[in-house]
Design a protein that fits this description.
The complex is a heterodimer of chains A (567) and B (246).
Chain A (H helix, E strand, L loop, with lengths): L2 E2 L3 E6 L5 H10 L4 E4 L14 H6 L7 H5 L3 E3 L7 E2 L29 H9 L17 H16 L6 E2 L2 E2 L23 H12 L5 E2 L38 H7 L3 E4 L3 E7 L5 E8 L2 E12 L3 H10 L21 E2 L6 E4 L14 E4 L18 E6 L4 H5 L12 H10 L3 E3 L1 E4 L8 E9 L5 E6 L4 H20 L4 E4 L12 E2 L25 E3 L14 H17 L1 H5 L1
Parallel strand pairs in A: 1-12, 2-3, 2-12, 3-9, 4-20, 12-23
Antiparallel strand pairs in A: 4-5, 6-7, 8-15, 10-11, 11-12, 13-22, 14-17, 14-21, 15-16, 16-18, 19-20
Helix pairs in contact in A: 1-7, 1-12, 5-12
Chain B lengths: L4 H7 L8 H12 L5 H21 L16 H14 L9 H4 L1 H8 L8 H19 L8 H12 L10 H17 L11 H6 L10 H6 L20 H9 L1
Classes of the chains: A alpha/beta (567), B mainly alpha (246).
């Protein structure tokens, strides 16, 4: 029998990007919060500048929960699903410890893909097998929460649209924001300057992207040191605005947040009326029941669906909040593959820097260009950035110029190690009828619980965007002086991803969505869900800031409507 | 975009001569829960101070070659040394994988992170050696470079049998591990004397990098430092004591 603990106001499952932000408005409102986190605390001392440990051995991700509970993957339902790796990590702060920290707002178009596409191009341009819907609200509804998170955790960047005033050193296509970023953008570099100049020659509007990384002293944290171990590594000076170094310590300081580390949640408990009453978790060899007035589920997309499906009860025989069979549906993982790689005839000075120190072009993203004569909707953000490491540099492609080993190869890498660059191209990705998450019938974790199974593949829309924007990227690289170009294929299966969306989609229609416009389950009034699992569209950019703005909004709504929600 | 004043100010090598106590104290602050702008400056100063020390003493402190046969057998190591020497040879562009001690890196990794590959090495190295003995009547390591290269090409192109799961897969695994062992942080047993990093003209691990450093590109003098030449990342309890009581 689990040991029953004292009841709390709110229990949050997961203290990562989403839960780690939500704790701040909740504790500031005086609510007592218990945060259950599967990992432990890490310090800057854990983040050595070590490419082998971070990049090859995946040290931060190699903690037991993520590794032992990795989802299985298959492209379609007629093939076997195979277990791969898990891209996320467990720690206080979650993946905000070792992410790239690119902190974009979605484009206004991303909230209204269906209606805007119909308005501009007619009724039949949405792919027939896509289950995409408009969000229940527009960009304007989320703008105040984007703003709150940008200032609360610290985001650097260059605004392109402040209350309608356009600044072409920022993103001229972005939705209007109420004020400037709290910090100027990260500095440029010889390479980003080269690419910026080339984009302007093409009559495009290059700009430095937003990052949850300090570009100057902010809230007691020093500026980024540009040493270059951001990718799958944490920050050695706390310049990365991880929730572990920003919102979580502030919530702890209120005296209202109790952080429980190494807690592995196994079940969300429901009463006979269909309300949640708390959660069960395992810690070491003990089992606990944490009663709570409200449960906020804030683990990763794969775990959010999984825990709901595992939490079966008399009221919810098909899994919690799943009376419409929508848990696990509308899953998608961001199309970030199909890169373009360029070889230059000069050193690019990219041995240092970070993935968030880059330059973007948005001319071919979202609905920023006319799709009338095209066979797809949406587009891609083109992103090139600094940061190079010796092992990955030595594994550079040879562009078919030399063999892959021996003296010729050695001479080639000696000459060209600092002369390649790969673009990071994120594309609009849609949900499809045949793409979903469920419980794997065979593969179980060490607790005997089935892992998540991903059944998903990209549609023609994503593949067509890939081909179209690869040509734009090639044009950009050639303008900058590239002498060789390599394009990778568009891919097929949607593997386990750091950009995984859906499974508990947000929307007004309870027949097609799991949570309502405030993030609370249609079926369960005191169960909220945080994370990209509530997002119905991906946009063409990193999801974390949107996840955090939504989490803040749900938390604030809960604090303001406490009596109604608790009932 | 101009750099922040803080970085410009602290990026200057104005205070290169820090005492050991101050160095530990300053880097120790990196590990503290709250840091200030001054901390980052101290990190940079400590970095450049370390850099000078390491450059001055790198020859004298060269790590002794205490290379146990931890996992691989003597015969396996002979074959693997010869393979590494074909993949990244010592030539006009300088020393290669053998001199960087890629084999030592691989042997150690097979006891830890790459444990699952141990069986594939056993089968694959033996298959290559047996093929050499059958066709040339000599062990693989005793053949000349042309003969060795032609056998490795056959492995890469999947025309030899007896590998797990295939010759091409074995070749790619060994190539990957040889690159890892030549270009990794020297803590892991390879990249001896920074042979790999010098080949690529990688200026080395630094804790802070200024715009002026980046502008120099490959002209930035290599600092020849491991991540673990920085006190902040050592296990040392002594260091942690300094951190707590600084």
């Amino acid at each position: 029998m689990p040991k029953t603990l004292a009841k709390t106001d709110v229990v949050i499952i997961g203290l990562g990007a989403a839960g780690g932000v939500a704790v701040l408005p909740l504790t500031n409102a005086g609510l007592k919060v218990v945060g259950l986190e599967a990992g432990g605390w890490l310090s800057p001392r854990d983040f050595a500048p070590d490419e082998l440990r971070n990049g090859v051995r995946s040290w931060p991700q190699s903690v037991p929960k993520a590794i032992n509970e990795a989802p299985t993957v298959r492209a379609t339902a007629d093939v076997d699903a195979v277990q791969g790796g898990h891209p996320m990590m467990n720690a206080v702060g979650g993946t905000t410890m070792h992410y790239w920290a690119q902190s974009w707002r979605l484009s206004p178009w991303d909230f209204k893909v269906v209606s805007e596409t119909q308005r501009r191009y007619g009724a039949n341009r949405i792919p027939a097998d896509s289950t995409v819907e408009d969000w229940p609200f527009g960009y304007e509804e989320l703008e105040p929460y984007y703003d709150k998170v940008e200032y609360a955790i610290g985001v650097s960047g260059q605004a392109g649209n402040v209350q309608g005033r356009i600044n072409n050193t920022g993103n001229i296509f972005e939705g209007a924001r109420q004020r400037e970023y709290p910090m100027r953008p990260l500095r440029s570099s010889p390479f980003t300057d080269l690419m910026g100049d080339a984009a302007r020659k093409l009559d495009w509007n290059p700009f430095q992207g937003p990052a949850a990384i300090t570009s100057e002293l902010y809230d007691g944290r020093p500026p980024c040191q540009y040493h270059g171990f951001c990718n799958t590594g944490g920050c050695h000076v706390q310049a990365k605005s991880s929730t572990a170094f920003t919102s979580i310590p502030k919530a702890v300081a209120t005296g209202n947040l109790d952080v429980v580390t190494y807690a592995r949640v196994t079940n969300i408990v429901t009463d006979s009326e269909g309300k949640v009453t708390g959660v069960e978790y395992v810690r070491g060899n003990e089992t606990f029941l944490q009663p709570a007035s409200v449960v906020l589920l804030a683990s990763y997309t794969y775990e959010n669906s999984r825990l709901l499906l595992l939490s079966k009860s008399a009221a919810f025989p098909a899994g919690l909040a799943n009376n419409s069979g929508q848990v696990g549906r509308h899953y998608l993982s961001h199309h970030q593959g199909a890169p373009v790689t360029a070889l230059f005839d000069r050193d690019l000075h990219n041995w240092y820097g970070l993935p968030a120190q880059g330059v973007a072009v948005d001319e071919w993203a979202d609905d920023n260009f006319d799709h009338s004569g095209l066979d797809f909707i949406g587009g891609a953000n083109l992103w090139v950035h600094t940061d190079r490491k010796p092992m990955s540099a030595a594994k550079m492609p040879t562009f078919d110029l030399v063999n892959s080993w021996g003296s010729d190869w050695k001479a080639f890498v000696a000459k060209n190690a600092d002369r390649t660059n790969s673009a990071y191209i994120q594309k609009t990705t849609l949900p499809y009828r045949d793409n979903y998450l469920d419980l794997d019938p065979l593969v179980k974790d060490p607790y005997g619980l089935p892992v998540t199974r991903i059944t998903a593949r990209y549609g023609d829309n994503e593949k067509r965007i890939s081909v179209y924007v690869q040509d734009k990227m090639e044009q950009w690289y050639l303008e900058a002086g590239a002498i060789q170009i390599l394009k990778s294929g568009p891919g097929n299966a949607m593997g386990a991803s750091t950009h995984a969306y859906g499974g508990t989609r947000m929307g007004d229609n309870p027949e097609t969505n799991v949570v309502n416009r405030w993030g609370f389950a249609h079926d369960v009034p005191n169960l909220g869900v945080l994370g990209a699992s509530v997002m119905g569209t991906s946009g063409a950019r990193n999801p974390t800031l949107t996840v955090q703005a939504l989490a803040w909004r749900t938390a604030e709504y809960l604090a303001s409507n406490w009596r109604t929600i608790v009932g | 975009m101009v750099d922040s004043k803080v970085v410009n100010k602290i990026g200057q090598p104005e205070q290169p001569d820090m005492s050991r106590r101050n160095l530990l104290k300053s880097v120790g602050l990196v590990g503290a829960a709250a840091v200030s702008a001054g901390t980052a400056g101290a990190v940079i100063a400590a970095d450049s101070s370390n850099q000078q020390a390491a450059t001055a003493t790198s020859a004298a402190q060269s790590i002794p070659a205490r290379e146990a046969l931890e996992v691989l057998t003597a015969a396996e190591v002979e074959t693997l040394e010869a393979i590494c020497d074909c993949l990244i040879p010592s030539d006009a562009n300088g020393p290669g994988a053998r001199e960087a001690r890629a084999v030592h890196y691989i042997d150690r990794s097979l006891a830890s992170h790459n444990r699952a590959d141990r069986q594939n090495y056993m089968i694959g190295l033996n298959a290559i050696n047996e093929f050499a003995l059958q066709t040339r009547r000599r062990a693989f390591h005793a053949l000349n470079k042309d003969q060795q290269n032609s056998i490795l090409r056959a492995v890469q192109e999947n025309t030899l049998t007896g590998f797990m799961p295939s010759g091409a897969a074995f070749f790619n695994m060994v190539r990957n591990h040889t690159i890892d062992g030549t270009f990794c942080d020297p803590y892991y047993g390879g990249n001896r004397d920074f042979i790999g990093w010098d080949l690529l003209r990688y200026p080395g691990v630094r804790l802070g990098v200024t715009e002026a450093d980046v502008a120099q590109g490959a002209s930035l003098p290599p600092n020849h430092q491991s991540a673990y030449d920085h006190a902040a990342y050592l296990k040392s309890a002594d260091y942690m004591g300094n951190d707590d009581h600084a």
